[in-house]
Amino acid sequence: MTNPETRIGKRFAALKAERRAGLVTFVTAGDPDMETSREILFGLPGAGADLIELGMPFSDPMADGPSIQASSLRALKNGMTLKKTLDLVAEFRNADNDTPVVLMGYYNPIYILGVDAFAAEAQAAGVDGLIIVDLPPEEVDELWKPARDAGIDFIFLTAPTSDDARLPVIVKRASGFIYYVSITGITGTRSADIADVETALKRIRKHTGLPIAVGFGIKTPEQVAEIASVADAAVVGSALVDVIAANLDPDGKPEKGVAEKLLALVADLAAGIGGAGEKVA
Amino acid sequence: MTKLNTYRAGPDEAGHFGIYGGRFVAETLMPLILEVEKAYTEAKDDPAFWDEFHSQMKHYVGRPSPLYFARRLTEHFGGAKVYFKRDELNHTGAHKINNTIGQILLARRMGKTRVIAETGAGQHGVATATVCALFDIPCVVYMGETDIERQSPNVFRMKLLGADIVPVSAGTGTLKDAMNEALRDWVANVDDTFYIIGTVAGPHPYPAMVRDFQAVIGNEVREQLHEAEGRKPDSLVACIGGGSNAMGLFHPFLDDKDVRIIGVEAAGHGIETGEHCASLTAGKPGVLHGNRTYLLQTDDGQILDGHSISAGLDYPGIGPEHSWLFDNGRVEYVSVTDKEALDAFQLCTKMEGIIPALEPAHALAHVAKIAGDLPKDHLMVMNMCGRGDKDVFAVARILGIELSQ
């Protein structure tokens, strides 16, 4: 069901061939500053990230817990903007033409830039997909159409509250993959029970053949491995940005080695699903 | 802009007022939003629901609130005949309880067993904690740390009423941040929790639902002024933060084309300083807290923190229906500074023996600007939407007077 021509389609096909699930890593663009963020982003594929979810910082991240809220605010404080986020992706794309990059964030900065301009610039930068937290199917068409025309996948969130009546509405416009939010809650808080996740994925798979990535509350290599046993990919975010938060000096400047520490955690997470170090950046 | 046949038909089925409103929420919340909408649509058509609402309005809230002719201020201004709609005399001291009664009845109808709310000035928090005490439902109120400091009497009232107050330190610790946190709570407690939003904002159906509950204000004004003067008002004035008291007063009159309608935003230290809460005067359309509306924001679409002397107006957005009424020109929107509101606060207290909340003091400051130039037979109704007891400590501090708290 994924388009085999896209980076996302190719990556999931490759994962299938390797008979393993993928690791999706989330970091916020520009966190804690542009230089460190670039170092992290460029190091992610080599550390074992199969897909990269890049947060577009927003002042009011309503679906995020304290870790990602703080991450977003650090980036904004250091001058990050949506334009600079797109520039960062373009720079990354020059160095890596295979690893899919999915932008995740909230609608307002995109709306202010303009949906058509955003779709065109995202395409030019080499963005593969979008996850826009506050655009449910009811409101999505104004961005979904320009994104589709630009060949960018729209990845929709499904949640434990998405019942059999709701799922068809969601998957109707979905492409690339489906993101299953494994808990009712915000990012980086509690973790789901694996049996509940398995039941939910079975239900979602009745409605779509797209790969399913599972996120929210996944922090350790053990949890990644557990999710990988039932899902097509596991998403880790808060645990990674927590590494940044833990390695800032009193002025909020990154301490030396923060990127290495974060990438080491990515490698640990990837090891649990046989993904670490198998690819080169 | 083409002239509409009616300004009272909105929103459409998807909750849009023109391009404004809508349901911009995370997928986890969508089924809940749809459930609230379904429950409200059913309740709206159920006479028994409204019988209970009006019974609570009469016996518990103390409605109808008086429509009072402000004789001394009218003489002082020297023009229009100024009436106050006395919603500050409601139980809990503001218009907020009209809405919380409506929503708690809906929450009970839906079988919800826990209530959350956000609050800025604390008036909505108090009104929510009050109805939760009345119906014995656990209540959690999210409130910015800055607001907790400047509204300590209301914080204590909420605690006495049995509510849990959760301080919010994110951002500048004001209403916007409290609303973010309430939404985060809701997404984590989807099964048992009802979110009582305090103003005509948020995802559909809240803007329309809150408006419908607050419309009791405008409906009473029409009747009461007819009794007092035998006719309709010539103008209506109300302050606007999110805009619920204003929408409650305005909505029943939107199709009375000869009624001039004015909303008053908070200009803080002055629009030119950038420290204000005048979303319509100085913001642009964007998406926040579940709806598209005018917002104070940067060129990159990051939301700015507003500033106002009045915690109740300290919000960078505004209800989507106001955005729509601004674009189509049916309602005039103006702004008033902290200083002007403070002067009106003192003037009203001395001349009418009514201590207004700082929020309606903004409306009064605009009345003071325009009433003198209007003819003596002009009937102007201003919504006195809250009383100022909660503000006396803050005002004392600004005036340089030390009170022991």
What's the gist of this structure?
The complex is a heterodimer of chains A (281) and B (405). Chain A is built from 12 helices and 9 strands.
Structural class of chain A: alpha/beta
The CATH superfamily title of chain A: Aldolase class I
Supply Rg of chain A.
17 Å
Q: Name the biggest interface.
A: A-B, 42 and 37 residues
CATH topology of the largest domain in chain B: Rossmann fold
- Cα end-to-end separation of chain A: 27 Å
Strand element count of chain A: 9
Q: Could you spell the SSE succession of chain B in H and E letters?
A: EEHHEHEHEHEHHEHEHHEHEHEEHEHHEH
How many DSSP helices of chain A? 12
The overall pLDDT average of chain B reads 95
CATH class of chain A: Alpha Beta
Major sheet details of chain A? 9 strands, parallel
Structural class of chain B: alpha/beta
Q: What do you see in this structure?
A:
The complex is a heterodimer of chains A (281) and B (405). Chain A has a 9-stranded parallel β-sheet with strand order 5-4-3-2-1-9-8-7-6. Chain A has 12 helices and 9 strands. Chain A has a single domain (7-271), classed as Aldolase class I (TIM Barrel, Alpha-Beta Barrel). Chain A is an alpha/beta fold. In chain A, 46% of the residues lie in helices and 13% in strands. With 405 residues, chain B is α/β, with parallel strands linked by helices. Chain B folds into 2 domains: 23-56 and 96-210, Rossmann fold, CATH 3.40.50.1100; 63-93 and 214-398, Rossmann fold (3-Layer(aba) Sandwich), CATH 3.40.50. Helix content of chain B is 42%, strand content 18%. In chain B, strands 3-4-14-9-10-13 form a 6-stranded mixed β-sheet, sandwiched between helices. In chain B, strands 1-2-12-11 form a 4-stranded antiparallel β-sheet. Chain B starts with 15 loop residues before the first strand and ends in a 7-residue tail after the last helix. The model of chain B has no long low-confidence stretch (mean pLDDT 95). The chains are: A alpha/beta (281), B alpha/beta (405). At the A-B interface, helix 5 and strand 6 of A face strand 2, helix 1, helix 8, strand 11 and strand 12 of B.
